[in-house]
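Pilot study result, target chain (114 residues):
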Amino acid sequence: MDLKTATALRRLRLVSAPEAISFLLLLACSVLKRTTEFNAVPVMGMVHGVLFILYVIFWADAWNRTKWPVKTAALYFVLSVLPAGGFFADRKLRREAEDAVIASRARQEGAVSA
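Predicted structure:
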């Protein structure tokens, strides 16, 4: 995995958890708006919207660089629209990055010993 691909995955991973948190907070604010006088939906809506747009941009960049199959790319997109999906995306992306590092080290060790 080259540096640009690793960076694209890291950016997607860094925005996935905050996007999930903002989605859950937006849902909580929606409930509070209907049950109390508290109305933070406009603010949380904007925060979540910005984070969602960043997620989609970083997702498209990661898909382009990693050459994921359509099924994998669709999974990461679907996780962005589920209330806690960003946490699962973060975990899956972390595993993918760790596997790539292990494979890269194995290739380097194989090249050195050959």
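One observation from the pilot: The radius of gyration is 18 Å. A full batch analysis is planned for the follow-on phase.
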